[in-house]
Design a protein that fits this description.
Blueprint: E1 5-6, H1 11-15, H2 17-26, E2 33-38, H3 47-66, E3 81-87, E4 91-97, H4 104-119, E5 128-132, H5 136-143, H6 152-155, E6 165-166, E7 170-172, H7 178-184
Antiparallel strand pairs: 1-6, 2-4, 2-5, 3-4, 3-7
Length: 205
């Protein structure tokens, strides 16, 4: 498969993180869980397989959110997530996501099952880390540590290289994407300072 290779999270990708977090709060799906899946520890090392596995896990989460099932109970909700991939010798994904408290225990069980299905083996030590979020903007900074170094000072982030990634390395569920953030007003257009602005220019935040 032909995938673009990137070395950093881009400024454009990073610019929507704060608006997405604010929109998740506004929609009643605050990003309250931070999940790390270490694909290398689970024995999934091929780049294409990792991309496909993460896509399917994200899709399963969206279905799980929408249809909890009559026997399991729970209130349906619309999936809300910011995610990124990194390669620091271990290929891993970070998922900043919403999981209702009443469905949290079930989610971990199902997430382990999804990972086992993708790898064809029982969950391995070190594969899955899942913890509650107490400071969502602190987690945001952690996820952005692989930001292009030229822009790290804007976010008060110390750059930490996160390796080369083939394919998309950072993203959102559609309901938290830039278009939705602009529609809901959590993402404001960025206006150049007058002395620096090209004629008629207005760039995204």
């Amino acid at each position: 498969m032909g995938h673009r290779v990137s070395k950093h999270i881009s400024r454009r990708q990073a610019s929507n993180t704060r608006p997405a977090i604010l929109l998740a709060e506004e929609l009643g799906t605050p990003l309250n869980q931070f999940v790390t899946i270490n694909f290398t520890a689970q024995g999934i090392t091929d780049e294409d397989e990792i991309i496909a596995a993460l896509d399917r896990i994200r899709a399963r989460y969206a279905r799980w959110a929408k249809a909890p099932g009559a026997r399991r109970g729970g209130t349906p909700f619309r999936a809300a997530m910011i995610w990124c991939l990194e390669d620091t010798g271990h290929r891993a994904a970070h998922l900043l996501m919403h999981v209702p408290a009443a469905r949290l225990a079930r989610f971990r069980i199902d997430l382990e099952a999804w990972i086992e299905k993708e790898s064809g083996r029982p969950i391995a030590d070190g594969t899955l880390d899942m913890r509650p979020v107490y400071n969502v903007f602190g987690v945001r900074k952690y996820m952005l540590k692989g930001l292009n170094p030229a822009f790290c000072p804007l976010y008060r982030i110390d750059h930490v290289p996160q390796g080369e990634i083939r394919g998309k390395r950072f993203g959102y569920t559609q309901n938290l994407g830039p278009a939705e953030c602009r529609r809901h007003g959590t993402k404001k257009p960025y206006r150049w300072p007058r002395r620096h602005a090209p004629a008629g220019a207005m760039a995204p935040a």
